[in-house]
Amino acid sequence: MDSVKGIIAAVVLLLGVLGLIIGATFLTYDQGTNDPGSKTIQENTDLRQLELVAPNWNLLMSDDEILELHSLRGKFVVVDLMQTGVCVPCQMQTTHLKTLYDGYENRIEILSLSLVLSDTVSRIASYKEENSIPWKVGLDTSGVFGSYFNARSVPTLIIIDGEGYFRWLHVGIWSSDDISSTLSALER
C-alpha cells in the first residue's frame, strides 16, 4: 500500500512539474534580437533610440485568420491593448480610436488586441460587431504584446512606425487629438 502511495505521489509531482514547464512555454515568445534587456521602455517618449524592431508575431484575428505583424509595415500601426469584458476606459478608448480612424483611415493601421487570455475568436468577433469597430481586432496571441511591454492596465497603446520600430508607449486613455499630435511628431 505504501508503494502505491509513493507511485501516486511521484506521478502527481511529475504532472505538477510538467504543468509548470508547459505553462512557462505558453508565456514565452520569440523576441528575436529585440529583447529590450536592460533598456528601459519609458511611457510617452520616442522609443526610436532603443532600436526595438517589432517581431513578426502571428496574431489570431476576429475572422479566424492569422495576421503577421510584419504585413502591416509601411504605415504607422496603433496597437490598442484592451479587454472585451466590462471596461469603461476601453470603451472610451475605442471612441477616441474611431475619431482617429476617420481622420487617418488610409494612412495608419489600428489593431485592437484583447489581453484576456480566455477570449476566443467568436468572443472577439462579437466584440468587434457589437462596438462597430472598422479596424482589425484580435487576440494578443500568447500574450506577446502584453508581456513585451509588461502591460498591467488597459487600455495600453503602442505605436509602431512604417519601418517596424516600436516608437511610443502610452498607458491609459489617450485622446484622438493627442494620438494625432504624437503621430505628426513621429512622422518628422
Q: What would you say about this model in short?
A:
The protein is an alpha/beta fold and 188 residues long.
Key phrases:
alpha/beta, Glutaredoxin, five-stranded mixed β-sheet, two-stranded antiparallel sheet, 7 strands, 37% helix
What does this molecule look like?
The chain has 188 residues and is α/β, with parallel strands linked by helices. It folds into two domains: 1-30; 34-187, 3-Layer(aba) Sandwich (Glutaredoxin), CATH 3.40.30. The protein has five helices and seven strands; from the N terminus they run H-E-E-E-H-E-H-E-H-E-E-H. The protein has helices at residues 2-27, 88-104, 121-130, 144-148, 176-187; strands at 58-60, 66-68, 76-82, 108-114, 136-139, 156-160, 166-171. A five-stranded mixed sheet has the order 5-4-3-6-7. Helix 2 (88-104) links the parallel strand 3 and strand 4. Helix 2 crosses helix 5 (176-187). The radius of gyration is 19 Å and the shape is globular. It starts with a helix and ends with a helix.
- Residue stretches low in confidence (pLDDT < 50, at least 5 long) are 14-34
- The name of the CATH superfamily of the largest domain reads Glutaredoxin
Largest sheet features: 5 strands, mixed
Rounded to the nearest angstrom, the radius of gyration is 19 Å
Oligomer: single chain
Strand content: 15-25%
* Ends apart, CA distance between termini: 76 Å
Write the layout of secondary structure elements.
Elements: H1 2-27, E1 58-60, E2 66-68, E3 76-82, H2 88-104, E4 108-114, H3 121-130, E5 136-139, H4 144-148, E6 156-160, E7 166-171, H5 176-187
Helix pairs in contact: 2-5
